[in-house]
Design a protein that fits this description.
Blueprint lengths: L2 H16 L5 H5 L2 E15 L8 E13 L3 E4 L2 E17 L18 E13 L2 E8 L17 E9 L5 E12 L30 E9 L4 E10 L3 E13 L4 E14 L9 E13 L2 E11 L31 E10 L8 E14 L8 E14 L9 E10 L8 E13 L1
Antiparallel strand pairs: 1-2, 1-19, 2-4, 3-4, 4-5, 5-6, 6-7, 7-8, 8-9, 9-10, 10-11, 11-12, 12-13, 13-14, 14-15, 15-16, 16-17, 17-18, 18-19
């Protein structure tokens, strides 16, 4: 059965359930939101080749409907989630893809949308989701950083039957990128191979995922995750998180994270040999939050692997526009955030982050040389705290990257996002 026919059948079955009087929980526990997002992005490269520059201004609208659960007997409950996304271009540079709107090689599309659904079933504290997935895990995350979301298709099983423990088993077969309107095969993000706009390289049959998260004590939690993108790469992750109070108004949140990446099966993209170790901590005291982090890549044959489609890896301590994931690259960051609600400006907060990368190995004509990278992020967030516009949010972001590498031009980027959610 074709995928869209399957979802039509699921939605029809769900609608039938919702019309029966015995399914009050299915309706009463549902959550339906209409989300609006106005998004502007402009990236300027600091070199003589102005055609590199790109960006767009778009308006997005998303219907996010999550049903409650209907008991079908035997302790089994079922439900359905539906996510309908659509974006319209208000303005954009047609020559270059901006990884926000689809691009056909000549110009960006004026609009695009996605319609997908998820069938969910629950027994006790174990839940299975089949269809569109929005995972948040060390080995795979959905991406909300642009206009429409990057999502995946597959099956995701999560169990909390064991006290203080979460077990995860998943299989993912497709990705719907943030700048795309359909599911595509999983590939490796490998720009050095000259791949096309959608990273159309050798494709994997799918990705297997296993994860264990355990709360060791009130302050200490540990996680182990394994992922195998078949015939491309496999990944082991081990993380330890420590949270504690340092007095009445001070809190510490720290972590140590380790990734071990290697080739899988037929190694469609060649040998992968990469390990990443990062240590990070944040201290919050009243309105102030200070953060620091150090990260180092090991293995001299490859960079940290990620999926084709610009999939982020926020579980690395130093993930920015520059990524800081080149072979043998070392990096650190410092951040500072201030919550203005402490001085009467409720809903306003600011963050500044400085990244420093060094010992990045050059490639091609610059092989044998090492380069440094500097990146600055300045972020302002404001959410209307009350009144008729309560929940209206505005975010402004400025990014400045200096690669100090002749092969990579410096860049400046501006982002402005305005969001609002209406709950039915």
């Amino acid at each position: 059965m074709h995928r869209h026919h399957l979802w039509i059948a699921i939605l029809a079955a769900t609608a039938t359930l919702g019309t029966t009087a015995g399914n009050a929980d299915f309706i009463d526990d549902s959550n339906v939101q209409l989300k609006f997002k106005n998004f502007y992005l402009d990236r300027q490269y600091q070199d003589d080749y102005s055609a590199r520059n790109w960006g767009s201004w778009s308006q997005g609208i998303t219907l996010d409907a999550k049903s409650g659960y209907h008991d079908i007997g035997g302790g089994v409950q079922v439900g359905t989630d539906v996510l309908v996304q659509h974006a319209v271009k208000l303005k954009g540079r047609d020559k270059n893809p901006d990884w926000v709107l689809p691009h056909d090689g000549k110009k960006s599309k004026d609009h695009f949308g996605k319609v997908n659904a998820t069938l969910k079933a629950k027994v006790s504290k174990t839940e299975l989701k089949v269809g569109e997935l929005l995972p948040v895990s060390p080995v795979l995350v959905f991406d909300p950083s642009r206009q429409l979301l990057t999502t995946y298709s597959g099956a995701w099983l999560e169990s909390k039957e064991i006290k203080d423990t979460k077990l995860t088993l998943a299989y993912v077969d497709k990705i719907n990128n943030r700048y795309d309107n359909q599911f595509r095969d999983l590939t490796l993000f490998a720009p050095v191979k000259g791949l096309k706009y959608y990273d159309n390289g050798e494709a994997s049959d799918g990705m297997w995922i296993v994860g264990v998260d355990h709360q060791l004590t009130k302050e200490v939690a540990a996680s182990y995750w394994y992922a195998d993108v078949q015939d491309i790469y496999q990944q082991h992750y081990l993380g330890v998180n420590y949270k504690t109070g340092l007095g009445e108004k001070t809190k510490l949140d720290s972590n140590v994270r380790y990734f071990n990446n290697s080739g899988s099966g037929d190694k469609l993209y060649g040998e992968i040999d990469n390990q990443a170790l990062s240590v990070a901590a944040k201290i919050n005291h009243g309105a102030h939050t200070v953060g620091v982090g150090y990260q180092q890549m090991f293995g001299d044959s490859s960079a940290f692997p990620t999926l084709g489609g610009w999939v982020p890896q926020p579980y690395l301590a130093n993930w920015g526009v520059a990524t800081f994931t080149a072979p043998e690259e070392k990096s650190w960051h410092m951040s500072y955030s201030y919550d203005f609600s402490k001085v009467g400006l409720k809903g306003l907060n600011t963050t500044a982050v400085y990244f420093k990368g060094y010992d990045q190995k050059g490639t091609g004509a610059y092989q044998g040389q090492n380069f440094n990278t500097d990146e600055v992020n300045a972020i302002v967030n404001y959410t209307v705290p009350e009144g008729k516009l309560k929940g209206l949010g505005v975010q402004g972001m400025y990014i400045d990257v200096n690669f100090a590498n002749p092969a990579k031009p410096d860049l400046q980027e501006y982002r402005v996002a305005t969001t609002y959610s209406y709950k039915f």
